[in-house]
Structure formats: structure tokens, C-alpha cells
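Batch manifest, entry 17 of 40.
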Amino acid sequence: LRPVSYIQQHIDPDWQPLIPTPPFPEYPSGHSVASAAAAEILTEVLGPLSFTDATHVGLGLPAFNYNSFTNAAEEAAMSRLFGGIHYPMGIENGLSQGQCVGRAVLERIQAR
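Output type: C-alpha cells
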């Protein structure tokens, strides 16, 4: 049962998510896994960097400042909660899984 389903069944039948409900399981959050894996690898390769994402400034949206790749990964993961796609546990465990994946990739690359 996704958050959107629970909200519509028990809280507000007219509530609509910001992001369309995707056709894959709620657990774990794939965005969390991929974002955390990328953050692990980028931090190892480039070091602990802060950066600004100005991708959508031309569309009138603000630039976003991140203290680290991990900070950006966590924000990407939380977007799935705000979109009604994942529960906190799926996000938290997805982030943890992604960190493990990132470390495994780094170990494999360094072993060559």
C-alpha cells in the first residue's frame, strides 16, 4: 500500500500526489538507492564538495545549494516521500542499500 493509497482511503479521497504513482514496488526507494550509491562514489572520487544545482533556473526555479553529495542524495530521496511514492522506511533503507552498493562498486574498481 503506497502512501497515496492510504491518504486517499483514510484521510482525503480527493488528494492527488505531486508525482504520478510509478508502476514499481514501494520498497525500497530506487531513487534513494541510486542517489546514495552515486554520492558514495562521487565523494570518494572528487572529495567532499559543496555545490550549487542551477539546472532549472531558466524555468524560474531557484538554484539549490548542497553541502555534499550525500546532502543532495538525501534531498532526492526525500522528494519521493513528498511525492507520496515511498514511506520513510523505504527511503531510509534505500539510502543505506545505496551506500553499500557505492562502496561495493568502489571496492571492485580499486581491485583492478
